[in-house]
Write a structure and sequence with these properties.
Length: 337
């Protein structure tokens, strides 16, 4: 039995969790800084790192208390070391290093996006690699083959904006507070997804790569043109049309990659996997093709430390502990980390 304390501070959530054997959640504490960043319309890195430093100790204490454990009951400490905002990552990494040094426990660095994938292990006991995985977050869009718990191969990625970024930037232009992805999803529910015909970009020569910046610009132009002419646009229809197109692009490429690789299992991960239309389209496309689909439950789609503890367990099994020279990194490949 391996009990891991996990810490996550890569962006605007300070989180700690206790996870057993990569699958069982003993506690999962997430505090969000979103209300503070909302004032500025996006994450302010300096504010983020200061708020992480203020919260991390209490959040970790809470995770241990909720699990009914003390540091003496732990086998290892896992921490998100990359990628993310460097100042934010450093708070978590230094805190985890301090705990590891003072307790003598092993320290396990975890790649944030590998963590998003592992959120599914907590919710779906039967899920194990190999599978095809689409990770869609605020900063990344990756289509990957996961051949075992620590072996990832990227088949396609975004060439410009991430899917979450496309939602957040257009939502902001429509007056929704940061991060607008969720609000846009909600407003889209009562809109007509076919009201506007939006571009369906393809990346020449790269069948599994994505491009979202043209789509974002098309929506911004549509809003701008309407306001210049003094016309009103139905925001619900814009949201529904954009959401439908993004979900369609993501779903089409994912099922095409499943067919090409012969993978029978599809896994969704990351903050944007909470999107209702993406979940619907993916469910329908997988059902039509006889593919098994796994998606994280909504509370595990966004950033949390439980997912870092789940992946941390498999990194630990693979012998990937770090020493005190561990450093955070703003960027890191999910394949080689
Ligand atoms: O994975 P995540 O929590 O943080 C990163 O690692 O980036 O993803 C955050 C992203 C944001 O862009 C947010 O707007 C988006 O996920 N998001 C959504 C929804 N909920 C969160 N996008 C579309 N529909 C949603 N329901
Ligand atoms: Zn994330």
């Amino acid at each position: 039995m391996t009990t891991i304390l996990a810490i996550e501070s890569s962006c605007d959530e300070t989180a700690a969790a206790v996870i057993r054997d990569g699958r069982e959640t003993l506690s999962n504490v997430v505090t969000s800084q979103i209300p503070e960043h909302r004032l500025y319309g996006g994450v302010v890195p300096e504010i983020a790192s200061r708020l992480h430093a203020e919260a991390i100790s209490a959040v970790t204490r809470q995770a241990l208390d909720d699990a009914g454990l003390t540091l003496a009951d732990l086998d290892a400490i896992a921490v998100t070391a990359y990628p993310g905002l460097i100042g934010s990552l450093l708070v978590g990494v230094n805190f985890a290093k301090g705990l590891a040094l003072s307790t003598g426990l092993p320290l396990i660095p975890v790649h944030h996006l590998r963590g998003h994938v592992a959120a599914n292990y907590l919710a779906h006991p039967s899920l194990q690699p190999p599978f095809l995985c689409l990770v869609v977050s605020g900063g990344h869009t990756h289509l990957m083959e996961v051949s075992d718990y620590t072996t990832f191969r990227i088949l396609g990625r975004t060439r410009d904006d991430a899917a979450g970024e496309c939602f957040d930037k257009t939502a902001r232009a429509m007056g929704m507070p940061y991060p607008g992805g969720k609000a846009l999803d909600e407003r889209a529910e009562s809109g007509n997804p076919h009201a506007f015909s939006l571009p369906h970009p393809k990346v020449e020569g790269s069948p599994y790569d994505f491009s979202f910046s043209g789509l974002k610009t098309a929506v911004l132009n549509l809003l701008h043109n309407a306001s210049q002419k003094g016309e009103s646009v139905c925001i619900e229809d814009v949201c529904a049309s954009l959401r439908f197109t993004v979900a369609e692009l993501l779903t089409e490429k994912t099922v095409a990659a499943a067919a090409a690789t012969g993978r029978q299992t599809v896994v969704l991960a990351g903050g944007v996997s909470a999107n209702s239309e993406l979940r619907r389209q993916m469910q329908q496309a997988c059902a039509e093709r006889g593919l098994s689909l796994f998606m994280p439950p909504l509370p595990l789609c966004g950033d949390n430390a439980a997912m870092i503890g789940a992946q941390g367990y498999y990194e630990w099994i693979a012998g990937r502990a770090a020493d005190m020279s561990l450093n955070a990194a703003a960027t890191a490949s999910i394949e080689e980390c």
